[in-house]
Task: inverse folding
């Protein structure tokens, strides 16, 4: 529920919905009421979503770095790995796709460059 009160040179809207507080100041009372109604609605919609739908991977990794990594041994290397992983950009689309070779009843993999025995494909 929203609380609209007179504040210095304007109006202050304060809301408390499902354990989450928020407030903001506005020039007019009408703006404060409109913001409070919209913000309450947004918070209620967010609370119904799963955490995976609410947060991005970046936000989850940053929170992990702030809350979990400092308590672990070897926190510095893990924090650096997280940083480098976050800096790396994933490709927007896959440009090359090489399907795995298909084995036949003769034990030979068929490829466009020629057939090779399956034993030569193992590392």
Result:
């Amino acid at each position: 529920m929203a609380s609209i009160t007179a504040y210095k040179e304007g109006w202050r809207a304060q809301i408390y919905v499902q354990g989450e507080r928020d407030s903001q100041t506005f020039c007019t009372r009408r703006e404060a009421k409109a913001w409070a109604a919209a913000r309450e609605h947004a918070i209620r919609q967010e609370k119904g979503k799963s955490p995976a739908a609410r947060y991005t991977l970046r936000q989850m990794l940053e929170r992990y770095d702030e809350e979990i990594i400092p308590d672990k041994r070897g926190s510095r290397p893990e924090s650096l790995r997280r940083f480098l992983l976050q800096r790396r950009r994933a490709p927007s689309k896959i440009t090359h796709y090489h399907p795995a070779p298909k084995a036949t009843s003769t034990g030979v993999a068929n490829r466009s460059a020629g057939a090779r025995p399956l034993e030569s494909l193992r590392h």
Helices lie at 29-48, 51-54, 57-67, 75-87.
